[in-house]
Amino acid sequence: MNAIEKLETQLLQQLQSNAVTYEIFEHDAVYTVSESEKINANIASAHTKNLFLRDKFDAYYLVTLLADKRVDLGQLSNILGAGRFSFGSADKMQEYLRVSPGSVTPLAVMNDTEYKVQLVLDEILTASPYVNVHPLRNTATLRLSGLDIVRMSAKWKHAPTILTVPAKSENPAKNED
């Protein structure tokens, strides 16, 4: 059993021991939201994407939101009181969350035992009875409730910041600095 398989086994055991109802859907590897669209069409749930971000003060954030939402990172950093955002490196993602790009999931905070990453959830997900996330790998989709994501994150001492993640305006003129 490789490292990711061991972590996934631990994840699923923790979900089960905390009475979290979930369902797993196996599929080919997907690395982007657009690649996952065909798979998502067959799994009724709120489909997510995850942004692993670093601010100018070297603080890290994992932002989970609806897959089709375009985020206004400037507004989000202001709301969170963070510095200007850039994307976090794959090396830091692996170091803190123990997942690789394409496999990011809010459930990966269970691996952040040094509490380096702040989880941010779009509030619409917390009200969703079914939310799709990866189970630490991009060859499967795990469906569980938004409230269970919140509950488990808090159990792992990563109580999420829940807010309406600001969407980028469709009007390009409004997005200019």
Describe this structure in words.
With 177 residues, this protein is of the alpha/beta class. Helices cover 30% and strands 23% of the residues. It is built from six helices and eight strands; from the N terminus they run H-E-H-E-E-H-E-H-E-H-E-E-H-E. Strands 1, 2, 3, 4, 5, 6, 7 and 8 form an eight-stranded mixed sheet that branches. Strand 6 and strand 7 form a beta hairpin. The longest helix is centred in the N-terminal third of the chain and has 15 residues. The radius of gyration is 16 Å and the shape is globular. It starts with a helix and ends in a 14-residue tail after the last strand. The mean pLDDT is 91.
Oligomeric status of the shown chains?
single chain
| Record field, number of beta strands | 8
Task: Compute the CA-based radius of gyration.
Answer: 16 Å
**Terminal Cα separation, in Å?**
49 Å
Instruction: Identify low-pLDDT runs.
Output: none
Q: Helical content, roughly?
A: 25-40%
Strand content: 15-25%
- Content-based structural category: alpha/beta
Main pleated-sheet profile: 8 strands, mixed
Could you state the order of secondary-structure elements as H and E? HEHEEHEHEHEEHE
What's the shape?
globular
Q: Whole-number average pLDDT? A: 91
Total of DSSP H or I helical runs spanning 4+ residues: 6
